[in-house]
Design a protein that fits this description.
The chain is an alpha+beta fold and 343 residues long. It is built from eleven helices and ten strands. The strands form two sheets. A seven-stranded mixed sheet has the order 1-5-6-10-9-8-7, sandwiched between helices. A three-stranded antiparallel sheet has the order 2-4-3.
Amino acid sequence: MDQLLQQIEQYKQEISSVVPDGAEALEAYRIRFLGTKGIVKGLFAEMKNVPGDQKKEFGQVLNDFKQLAEGKYEDWKNSLGGAATGKSAAIDLSLPGDALPLGTHHPITLVRDQIVHIFGRLGFSVAEGPEIEDDWHNFTALNLPENHPARDMQDTFYINQNPDWLLRTHTSSVQARTMEKQKPPIRIICPGRVYRNETISARAHCFFHQTEGLYVDENVSFADLKQTLYFFVQELFGKDVKIRFRPSYFPFTEPSAEMDINCRICGGSGCAVCKHTGWVEILGSGMVHPKMLDNFGIDSNKYTGFAFGMGIERICQLKYRINDLRLYSQNDVRFLKQFTGAV
């Protein structure tokens, strides 16, 4: 090792004495010290001959030498500028630059951001949570105890490593985590990716994106829920959109309702997306179940709230008249280029 250290010191002196002199000398320096058969490569190859207890010390010295050699080369090259390549005379700085292709956000991102913006105007802040969840936050805390029949609606992906872990089936788990840490008033919007064991088709996929909302405060009523959702839908689809509420069931809300709008793809005449009914369900909603509030130490006698949830892919389909949900994840540039400049 002592002999190698002496060689390195000699090379350092040689580098410090080099006087930059033209592109040819620069290239000769690069080949001698930094080339594939150069001095630096050769010294690294000697590492195998250094005793094990000295490898760390020698490696540090060798790295310092390598940085010195590379630094000298970069300084020399920068001092030569265009002369190092001999191309300075071929560059016409008066010519315009090369055009760069414009990219765009994915349509799912565009719609998600618009949804967040609309609810942001109503005072909703964004809350996020993990995609790998536990049973409590994804089911039990939301009034879905073990063996509850509504769990069969979720088609859950469980994780073999721990039977209590799963890929979240809805972003309602973010609502649970928020109520766990924050006391009313609560007003949040929860966008994110969720997973369900669905048969892939024009209307369904094994993963998709949801946006859910939660508002908990004193004297919150179903009228507040309806007016909030009316405002959202008209802001997103326009004032001419037709809306209807239908009674429904969700374990974490009571009473519950689904919200439909007239199909924006066929104009209400009937198509595969709306199942030839002229209406498309865009979200589920309802008043927060008192038991769900009690689970997180929120006084259900004092506070009430409403919640809602929607699939972003479905909203995007209706907004941009996309007839097949699978297009979102196929990475077809011809499809994605249509959304350059979309708002």
